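Write out the 3D structure for:
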Amino acid sequence: MPRFPLALVALALVASGCQSGVRAQLAPAPTAAPTTAAATLVPVAPVVVTPSPTLSPTPKAKAKPPSYNVKAVQTRLTELKYYIGAIDGVPGGQLRSSVMAFQKVNGLSADGGVGPKTLAALKAPKTPVLKGSGGGTRVEVDLTKQVLYIVKNGAISRIMPVSSGNGQKYLTKSGGTATALSPVGYYKIQRRIVGERKAELGTLYDPQYFYKGWAIHGSNSVPAYPASHGCTRVTRTDAKWLLNQITIGTAVYFYGGRYTFTAGSSAPGTDDPGGDTEPAPKPTPSPTKSPTPSPTPSATPSASPSPSPSIVPSP
């Protein structure tokens, strides 16, 4: 058998389609299999980050509705001359103040709330007893009960709560010591200031002065007990109402109480500084054009009520 060159044999195999052996030798090395760790990786679902909601403040608990008929109480207190506000079924500061005055007159705990005892007293209220007499308009302040009566033509037209001198010691502007006392007796409204009066010991609202620096005035604090430096505090709403009810010359009668003094006595606090405030400064008089200076008239002391008060001794 003749021998053929290897090149011819390979050419013949190609022509006959037998290329697998050649391709097997020429094929590139297989790619290495992935490592076991890579093969076992399991796709993880994407994490969705939900933003935390903005925390809103904790809502305040709703106030419980009153356990009584507010309109009925407003109506009753209006009939009894304690309440002058709207009869709208809405409790508020003015109703609370009126309830407090009613409780004081009826010997109840003056907290301004309407409970079973107050509701019972509203059905059978006590009739206030006035100390003064006569017609016209006057103010009576019962310092024991801590209430104020507006009297017109001999009848009570309004009753409101007050807070008077607490009997405590305090420092005066001059550095001395005074006692928080309220005057008792008969007086008259001598002057008044509409609006705010900023004084050494605090702010007075719509004060109406009846003796030196002592006044009936509005305040942001009118507790059920004596708490002032000597003046008679009423609520700011009542102080404004009083501006249209009394005026300069209206008679004022104070009686009862514990921390009091009689006008003109030597009781501490009578002259320095004079209740919650000193009298407002008087305007400086215009200079005279006369070449010869006129003698300076003696100043009329604002302390002396006119006419002289009839003194009621302190109990």
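Residues 93-105 form the longest helix (13 residues).
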